[in-house]
Write a structure and sequence with these properties.
- The complex is a heterodimer of chains A (367) and B (485).
- Chain A has 367 residues and is α/β, with parallel strands linked by helices.
- Chain A contains 13 helices and 8 strands.
- In chain A, the strands form 2 sheets. A 6-stranded mixed β-sheet of chain A has the order 2-1-3-6-7-8.
- Chain B is built from 19 helices and 2 strands.
- Chain B has a two-stranded parallel ribbon with strand order 1-2.
- Chain B is mainly α.
- The C terminus of chain B is likely disordered.
- Chain B folds into 2 domains: 179 residues, no CATH class; 282 residues, no CATH class.
- Classes of the chains: A alpha/beta (367), B mainly alpha (485).
- The interface between A and B is large, with 42 and 33 residues.
């Protein structure tokens, strides 16, 4: 073999490798970007991309949006429809969404002429403390290119040129062996839906050995606070009804917050807009049966949140669950919250171990 | 634009290559050179277009000073001043971009002033740009460079393969190759060697170095303390990571350059095989060693000065080497450690003591490994954290499964449990580690492999496997499950 032939062979292999990788990503489509028809059952979805795509095909159909992280993703728009006549909600909640991303989405709607009457936003304290936006290489968390004002070519290229072997393997397994459960996002309203198993029947497993116990400190708050400030200003400017609340984080999360950082964030938020605070140690957050896991509450809790916010007396909501906070009342609220945290942490409420996941078979003991 | 990116490998490099040889084939030699210069400026400006102005300004300034020096036939007093202005200009640029915040931090530390940091973005490759142009000006002043050609000079400084991480090239070793007629047509032997070298470098960078970084980074950056095994894994991972990363990138630079029939000087010659510290500096970043010898150490007096002055020259030289690598005291400590080691080596060599080769290698390698800890650590405290762990002062933990076989060790303060609580490695990690270590220390390096390249099916298949692995690792993503309900 001469040097010329050798060079040509290697170059052919190089380009063939790239082409094969791109083809693999198109055919398998592990993040449902290309929407190819070959493997229909999906394990994971870049819902930031797919929900905006869905909305762009249904422009004008919705005039109100649910925003937040995966904790909001199960909130059915029907829950809110009865409280806001004329509002047609779409659930745009996406996993690990930050306040800065909510701002980008609102700007996208305004720029592209989407009608926006109401924004119903659940704020997660831990995500307000984190990054303002996730990194480029987090392919599951990448915003839609039009939301980012970036080129489609670069966006698609990032999904064509990567080799996520675990996600590819998982999707192939799902479609050929049918062992794993597919994820589904409702085409109708964007809420996450699941297979046959009723999610509310599951009971929360608490295992201190595997749950994260690191302290959540407020490290990047300013960018998310600035994002919320701008979002609130845009809502005022465009006469959008902004309903903001703090997620009822369960006790395990509350135990991890660096208290003064958390309270300082609430103070900043009160200066931006009034909000509902469902956080703290209350009847809902200390009972694990209200949660699917240590991070996500059940849809029954979403109903309670909405009932409290909209003053629905027909629905039973514990008295200590949810309080409206304004700038004028923030001092007393923070003092009350500080006492609540101190009391509950001093009592050293212990974690409970339990082993069952089906309803009716739980041996869970609540504090 | 990085070498290990799709844009470079699949678009920029092939287009530049094609354009250069098409123009050469049509005997448009000047146009071909201009094409390379434009491509190099595009390469540099891809990161931030504004810095094209910086590099152009620097090129024009140094070319003007060099031209003025060439016009003066003798190196008189005015020439000396011109050289000082030229070198001063280059160092000022470097000082501004690289050391301003370092100076401010230190001024604030020793005074009551509370000056604000400037947070100036460091232009890529500025350290290499500076040294290359200083070398050029000194060579001109010494009469080693007599011709003037702006295109050649631009390529000497800004030729994209060596623009970001070197090697530091001299005028007389690169420019004759640019002008040589034999280098104008495509040379398939060089092309085959170039592609091989480039792919080996790519593999070293994206497969080996990046994997080692996953083990080194937690230990240096996030851990509050490290166990004995963790500390050694952390330091050795970084030692290997740095070699594979830097030498891998250099291989890509040499390979990319050889595509254009330009042979750049090699920079790494299996440095972790060194038996002495002096040998290490003849194998590690060889063009830097050459530069500091010819342009710093020898002008200071070198070995011809008195014994004490010579030792001082070594320390001053390595103080500057440390500082050149980074604007931080940990870099200076690293440099001074190597300076001290060379001083000690000088005394050792004068005595008749000789160590067995294996012992000599062991001592040298462990010194280098320990010194890299300062190079990598963000602060002196972080460095001491790793060194403390390496010395066993934070405790030695062995795997739980050994507790049954070695219970006697408990009496000596050794514990059994999770050996790697911070790094979170497993047995596969140890296996990879051993393989990478052996590659660095025992196997032929990529330059040696490429020199003796035999184009046959076996080599093509082996290189194809390496290529596929490297391409699949080019664009990494974080994979995790959050739809886990």
């Amino acid at each position: 073999m001469n040097h010329k032939k050798f060079s040509i062979i290697i170059l052919c292999v190089l380009y063939a490798c790239l082409a094969s990788l791109a083809l693999l990503n198109i055919v398998v489509d592990p993040y449902e970007i290309f929407r190819t028809p070959f493997l229909k059952r999906q394990t994971q979805v870049n819902d930031r991309y797919s929900k905006i795509e869905s909305l762009s095909k249904n422009k004008g159909k919705y005039n109100s949006y649910i925003l937040g992280s995966s904790r909001m993703a199960h909130t059915s728009p029907d829950i809110l429809a009865k409280y806001l006549p004329g509002a047609k909600f779409y659930n745009l909640a996406t996993a690990l969404a930050t306040p800065y991303e909510h701002l980008l989405h609102l700007k996208y709607f305004i720029k592209n002429g989407y009608p926006v009457k109401n924004l119903y936003i659940g704020l997660d304290i831990d995500l307000c403390f984190g990054v303002k936006m996730h990194k480029e290489k987090e392919l599951l968390l990448k915003l839609h290119p039009e939301v980012l004002n970036k080129s489609w070519i670069g966006y698609y290229w990032s999904y064509l040129s990567v080799f996520p072997k675990t996600d590819i393997r998982r999707k192939l397994r799902l479609n050929f062996s049918r062992k794993a459960k597919p994820i589904q996002i409702s085409e109708e309203d964007g809420a996450w839906t699941f297979g046959e198993e009723a999610k509310d029947a599951r009971v929360f497993v608490v295992d201190p050995a595997i749950n994260d116990t690191s302290i959540i400190k407020n490290e990047v708050k300013e960018e998310n606070v600035a994002g919320l400030r701008e979002l609130a200003a845009l809502c005022r400017q465009h006469e959008i009804n902004l309903i903001l609340f703090i997620t009822p984080h369960n006790k395990l999360f509350m135990d991890r917050f660096a208290v003064e950082d958390y309270l300082a964030f609430l103070r900043k938020l009160s200066a931006i807009t009034s909000f509902w605070d469902f956080s703290g140690y209350n009847s809902i957050t200390i009972h694990y049966e209200n949660y699917l896991d240590y991070s996500h509450y059940k849809s029954s809790v979403s109903r309670m949140i909405a009932a409290r916010i909209f003053g629905d007396k027909t629905f039973t909501v514990p008295e200590d669950f949810g309080v409206r906070v304004t700038e004028e009342g923030i001092d007393s609220h923070l003092e009350s919250l500080r006492m609540n945290i101190k009391t509950n942490r001093e009592e050293g409420r212990s974690l409970h171990l339990r082993t069952q996941t089906k309803a009716g078979e739980s041996s869970l003991k609540s504090p | 634009m990085l070498f290990n990116s799709y844009a470079f490998i699949f678009f920029f490099l092939p287009m530049t290559f094609a354009g250069y040889f098409i123009l050469n084939r049509r005997k448009l030699i000047l146009a071909a050179k201009a094409w390379l210069v434009l491509a190099s400026l595009f390469f540099y400006g891809y990161w931030n277009p504004i810095y094209i102005l910086l590099i152009l300004g620097s090129l024009i300034f140094n070319y003007a000073v060099g031209s003025a020096l060439i016009r003066r036939n003798n190196f008189g007093r005015s020439s000396r001043w011109m050289l000082i202005v030229g070198i001063g200009g280059n160092l000022s640029l470097l000082a501004y971009f690289k050391y301003m915040d370092f100076f401010i931090t230190n001024i604030n530390a020793v005074s009551f002033l509370n000056l604000k940091l400037l947070h100036i973005a460091l232009p890529l490759g500025i350290s290499f740009l500076t040294f290359t142009q200083i070398a050029y000006l000194v060579d001109v002043a010494r009469g080693m460079v007599r011709e003037q050609n702006f295109l050649n000079y631009s390529l000497l400084v800004a030729f994209f393969p060596r623009l970001l991480v070197g090697p530091i090239v001299r005028y007389r070793e690169m420019v004759p190759q640019l002008d040589a007629l034999r280098n104008k047509p495509l040379n398939y032997e060089y092309t085959a060697q170039a592609i091989t070298l480039f792919l080996l470098g790519l593999f070293k960078k994206v497969v080996i170095a990046d994997r080692l970084a996953d083990w080194a980074n937690p230990g240096f950056d996030t851990a509050a303390s490290l166990t004995f095994v963790e500390a050694w894994i952390t330091s050795l991972s970084y030692t290997l990571q740095l070699y594979f990363d830097f030498s891998g990138y250099t291989d890509m630079a040499l390979g990319a350059s050889l595509l254009f029939n330009i042979r750049l000087p090699i920079n790494f010659n299996s440095p972790y095989r060194s038996l002495t510290i002096q040998e290490f500096w003849r194998r590690w970043h060889m063009t830097l060693s050459r530069f500091i010898r010819d342009y710093i150490y020898i002008p200071l007096g070198g070995s011809r000065a008195s014994e004490l002055r010579m030792l001082l020259n070594i320390l001053v030289t390595f103080f500057l080497v440390g500082l050149w690598h980074g604007a931080g005291w940990t870099f200076v400590i690293w440099g001074l450690l190597h300076g001290c080691a060379l001083v000690i080596f000088r005394f050792w060599r004068k005595g008749s003591l000789r160590l067995p080769r294996l012992v000599s290698w062991f001592v040298t390698f462990n010194f280098i490994n320990a010194a890299w800890v300062f190079f990598r650590a963000q602060t002196f405290t972080d460095a001491m954290k790793v060194l403390k762990g390496m010395s066993g002062l934070t405790g030695v933990i062995l795997p739980e499964r050994f507790a049954h076989f070695l219970p006697i060790l408990k009496g000596y303060g050794i514990q059994f449990g999770n050996m790697l609580p911070t790094i979170r490695g497993d047995m596969k990690m140890f296996l990879y580690f051993v393989v990478f270590f052996l590659l660095a220390v025992l196997f032929k390096n990529s330059n040696q492999m490429t020199e003796k390249l035999k184009p046959n099916w076996r080599t093509a298949i082996a290189l194809s496997v390496i290529l596929v692995y490297a391409v699949l690792n080019l664009n990494k993503t974080n994979e995790f499950i959050y739809f886990n309900f």
